[in-house]
Write a structure and sequence with these properties.
The chain is built from 20 helices and 7 strands. The protein has one domain: Glycosyltransferase, CATH 1.50.10. The longest helix has 31 residues. Helix 3 runs parallel beside helix 6 and helix 7 packs antiparallel against helix 9. 50% of the residues lie in helices and 4% in strands. It is globular and about 65 Å long.
């Protein structure tokens, strides 16, 4: 080989080596982007998640309101119908008060405090959690104007979605809709009963009079929902296109009965859940999701906990309660990818994936149920059985809950936190009317119905207001996410997304290594997350 050929050969080797080094650098940087730059601060995320509910408040805001870009709104709600329906929460990025998801939000916030109140208090957030719950239950007391009347919705989704306005400027319909003797709504009546019963437990020690009042309403609503059966969206047509009761009302009736049992220790409520377990679907439906509409996994988890907490007390009902437990563990095993049949899909980055519209609601609710079930298994020194024959310890459930929450907080292929306001990188163009328009307190000039679309909705820049603590819909099945205001399936947040996350964050804020360490599994391994 002559000198020229040798130099050419060495040049090619040098180029190949340089290319290899660049490729290794790219892989390293890509892997680094999949992990957080710092360990997750669950207490910080918890505080921000509770702040979100103040951004969603309707009504006359209190003097200690922390979200300063919001102001009073909906002050005439119910006026046309002769009732006071001021207050409550807007469900998402619009200005409608939908009763069914609002009630589920309060039920789940209450459950989070019941399970993890000590951790929430330790983070200095108990007063904010109780305030978020009471803002909802105060509204439900107003909305329950008669034993057999519940006001189910304020506002109309069609006219509301036609406009892009701050809630402080609303010119859309504020028509109120109710369920009553002639227009039943067993699902919304029972979910509201569940919310008030769960909240009564929360306030039992700190505000016993209020707790008793909530129980009084809860009992009446459950009786009404059970006696006059029917789906609320058949009575309230305005809800059908937005929050239809696809699962029916059986899950809500069982859900309310179990919450009333927990709140009162009245054996009649437990007997109801046992006697109606088959006819209302509690022990027949094996479900792989838990949401504002489909409550069966929550019902089954509550029933399972009864046996774990006090098997002797519930021995007369063991046969049915074990059937509830079997279905609860089907749900949990589907999240763990350990069922022989139906399992919840995973994205390549390991995120549980149910459907493309607002998938994060299913992730946060799964993280909560996994956390709760893990703790009760541990306390009872028990394991979970999956249909593939595996026995699963509590640490594996909690580890999956942690992985899902960590993904939400930024440990994902994009390095993006899907909890708005948390971390260095999060969605800036949340699909939210109030957040996307100049704050009312600084710019009180009226913004009309279509003016918001013309001047604000289409802007490419970030929202002028940050909806701190909002959990957006999140990425698609390939971990892809477009931070665009018009991309409502991914960038809109809902109260029930964050409500279930609160409890999971509280649990993880007191996490110890032994809680999740089992068989040396590396919790930072994304490939494990996508398969385990």
């Amino acid at each position: 080989m002559n000198a020229a050929a040798m130099f050419a050969f060495l040049g090619r080797r040098r180029s190949a080596l340089l290319l290899l080094l660049l490729l290794l650098l790219f892989v390293t940087l890509t892997a680094a982007s999949h992990s957080q730059s710092r360990p997750p601060d669950y207490a910080e995320a918890l505080a921000k998640s509770l702040l979100y509910f103040e951004a969603q408040r309707s009504g006359h805001l209190p003097h200690n309101q922390r979200v300063a870009w919001r102001d009073h709104s909906g002050l005439n709600d119910g006026l046309e119908q002769g009732v006071d329906l001021v207050g409550g929460y807007y469900d998402a990025g619009d200005n409608v008060k939908f009763g069914l998801p609002m009630a589920f939000t309060i039920t789940m916030l209450s459950w989070g405090v019941i399970e993890y109140g000590q951790q929430i208090a330790g983070a200095g957030e108990l007063a904010h959690a109780l305030g978020a719950i009471k803002w909802g239950t105060d509204y439900f007391i107003k909305a329950h104007t008669h034993p057999n009347v519940l006001w189910a919705q304020v506002g109309d989704g069609d006219t509301d979605h036609y406009c892009w306005q701050r809630p402080e400027d609303m010119t859309t319909s504020r028509q109120a809709y109710k369920v009553d003797e002639d227009n039943p709504g067993s699902d919304i009546a029972s979910e509201t009963a569940a919310a008030m019963a769960a909240a009564s437990i929360v306030f039992r020690e700190t505000n016993p009079h209020y707790s008793h009042l909530l129980l009084h309403h809860a009992r009446q609503l459950f009786e009404f929902g059970d006696r006059r059966r029917g789906k609320y969206d058949a009575s309230v047509a305005a809800a059908k296109g937005y929050y239809p009761s696809v699962s029916g009302y059986g899950d809500e009736l069982l859900w309310a009965a179990l919450w009333l049992y927990k709140a009162t220790d009245d054996a009649d409520y437990l007997a109801y859940a046992v006697d109606n377990a088959a006819s209302l679907g509690g022990i027949t439906w094996a479900i792989a999701e838990f949401s504002w509409d489909v409550k069966f996994a929550g019902v089954q988890t509550l029933a399972s906990i009864l046996l774990m907490e006090d098997g002797a007390k519930h021995e007369p009902h063991r046969r049915i309660l074990e059937q509830y437990r079997s279905k609860a563990e089907h749900y949990l095993c589907s999240c763990l990818n350990k069922n022989n049949g139906t399992n919840v899909r995973r994205t390549p980055g390991g995120l549980l994936y149910v459907r493309k519209w607002n998938n994060m609601q299913y992730v946060s609710s799964a993280a909560f149920l996994l956390s709760v079930y893990s703790d009760h298994l541990r306390a009872a020194d028990q394991t979970l059985g999956c249909s593939n024959g595996e026995r699963v310890g509590p640490e594996e459930l909690l580890r999956l809950a942690k992985w899902q929450v960590d993904y939400i907080l930024g440990d994902n292929p994009h390095g993006t936190s899907y909890l708005v306001g948390y971390g260095d990188k999060y969605p800036l163009r949340v699909h939210h009317r109030g957040a996307s328009i100049a704050p009312y307190r600084k710019s009180k000039g009226f913004i009309g119905c279509t003016q918001g679309y013309d001047n604000w909705f289409g802007r490419r820049g970030p929202n002028p207001n940050v909806v701190v603590g909002a959990l957006v819909g999140g990425p698609d099945d390939m971990d892809r996410f477009r931070d665009e205001r018009k991309n409502f399936m991914q960038t809109e947040a809902c109260t029930y997304n964050t409500a279930t996350l609160v409890g999971a964050l509280a649990r993880l804020s007191s996490l110890e290594l032994d809680d999740i360490d089992d068989e040396g599994v590396d919790s930072s391994d994304l490939s494990s997350r996508a398969s385990i």
